[in-house]
Amino acid sequence: MRQFVGKLAFCLVFIFLMILAILEHEAIQPVMSGAVSEFPSIQYISQKEAEQLITKTKGIVIIDVRNNTEYIQSHLENAVNIPMRELNEHLPELEKYKDKPIVIYCDKGYRSKTVAIQLEALGFRRLYVIEDGIG
């Protein structure tokens, strides 16, 4: 009987903790989904969507934020290489593209997202990030 009560108590505590975890997850979810809408000038697109956008959009700027070695190995046609670490050095030349559509990419998507957030903070308004990169 003691074993049964012990197991029952354990099960009830486990169920309570699971419910608590689910409720906490539900409470956090709107905050997490709000992170994307916090940057309305940035649109996250697939590589296929980027290819379509590049093909149909006149005057689009394509920025590869990977390092020089990665860029030399392969890059999208007409892409300009501005490694993430060198972004600040290139801001004066990017200023003229502030109102133009800009596609930003890297290998996995992390560096391009970081650069897009920085550019948006500087007033760039038509930013497209290849979400999972081109790797």
Write up what this structure looks like.
This protein is of the alpha/beta class and 135 residues long. It folds into 2 domains: 37 residues; 92 residues, Oxidized Rhodanese, domain 1. It is 53% helix and 13% strand. It is built from 5 helices and 5 strands; from the N terminus they run H-E-H-E-H-E-H-E-H-E. The protein has a 5-stranded parallel β-sheet with strand order 1-5-4-2-3. The longest helix is centred in the first third of the chain and has 36 residues. It is elongated and about 75 Å long. About 8% of the residues have low confidence. InterPro entries: GlpE_sulfurtransferase, Rhodanese-like_dom, Rhodanese-like_dom_sf. This is Rhodanese-like domain-containing protein.
Question: Which structural traits does this protein have?
Answer:
single chain, 135 residues, alpha/beta, Oxidized Rhodanese, domain 1, 2 domains, 5 helices, 5 strands, Rhodanese-like domain-containing protein, Rhodanese-like_dom, Rhodanese-like_dom_sf, GlpE_sulfurtransferase
